[in-house]
Amino acid sequence: FNIIVFLVYSKNKAEARLAARKQARAKEIRLRLMERQQKEIAENESSDRYNHSDLSHANHQGNGDHISMRCRNNQMISRESRTSSYASSRRSSQESLDLCGDSPRDLKHYLHELEEKLRKTLISNAQLDNEKQSFVYQIDLFKDEMEEQEENYLRLQRDFKEKSRNFEQLKRDNEKLRFDFKCFKDALEERDQLIKKADLVIIRNNDGKKILSKLCRSKLVNGGIETKSNLLNSDEINGEQNDEQETNQNQQPVLLTDSISLISKEAAEMLSEIEGESLESKLSEILSERKSMQNQINSLKNDLENERNRIDSLTDSLAASSSNLSSDKQAEIQSN
């Protein structure tokens, strides 16, 4: 569809450009024709005046010279008219030869008729020549237009072939991407089913990252593919809710590679009770609490051992004192 629109736009643009060029050339042709017609009319008037002066000068000469001059003028006129029309020149020459023996008055009258015919013939020839030049110029314009149209056609044909190749390449890429999409989608669905069967939860490992999704109703983004899975975000682990972060997460998907981990729900619930922004911070908090508890246990063990030693020493001292008392009592009994 874009190619068709481009072709129509190019055609309209080329037609507008050619129309403007035609108008400019037609205007130029009209100006040239007007100048040429004016020039030819001026030349015809000057030639008519020259012929009239020659004829008036010849009338004052003798009859023999007068007849010979008229014959020569008629022959000259017939030669000039022959260039414009063969039939009219032949008829004029024949009539001039027939009338060479007539009276000077008739010859003069006939000469005026021939001059009028010659003037009309010259004017018609000039007009025909102007029309011929106009037609030749129009033919040149049509040739230029045809050449330009051919060039535009060839250029558009090349563009069409190139766009067709690009379209086929994009079509193949689209089919490949659709196939990859289906494969990734099936893999993610299978993974989600396995996670669901194992009753596990996905958490992130990165520090300070935004929310991924909610537990049991979330979207995992991997390579631009969204799917539902059991996820636990960092705010749920911290016991916090943040709608703004959830909106940002929906607008800007995060690619997941090695930044997620699978844990049980019991561990996730335990982690949700611990303060911290990331899994690493929570684990470090657990380790520090474990170390402190271990130290407390060790100190209590030491205290217990000390108490036991003290109790043992007291027991020994009590046993010694009791043995001394019993020996004294026995001595008294014996003395009595």
Main attributes?
336 residues, mainly alpha, 2 domains, two-stranded antiparallel ribbon, rod-shaped
Briefly say what this structure is:
This protein has helices at 2-59, 63-84, 86-98, 104-197, 234-238, 243-251, 265-272, 279-335, and strands at 200-204, 218-222, 225-229, 260-264. It is mainly α and 336 residues long.
Instruction: Count up the domains.
Output: 2
- Rounded to the nearest angstrom, the distance between the terminal CA atoms is 136 Å
* Biggest sheet descriptor: 2 strands, antiparallel
Secondary-structure content class: mainly alpha
> What is the number of helical segments per DSSP (H or I, 4+ residues)?
8
Compute the average pLDDT. Answer: 68
State the strand order across the main sheet: 1-4
Which spans of ≥5 residues are poorly predicted at pLDDT below 50? 55-72, 77-101, 207-258
Fraction in beta strands: 5-15%
Order of helices and strands: HHHHEEEHHEHH
Shape: rod-shaped
Strand tally, please?
4
Helix content: over 70%
Radius of gyration: 61 Å
Coiled coil: 111-180, 276-324
Biased composition (Low complexity): 83-96
Protein name: Double stranded RNA binding protein-like protein
Region (Disordered): 41-99
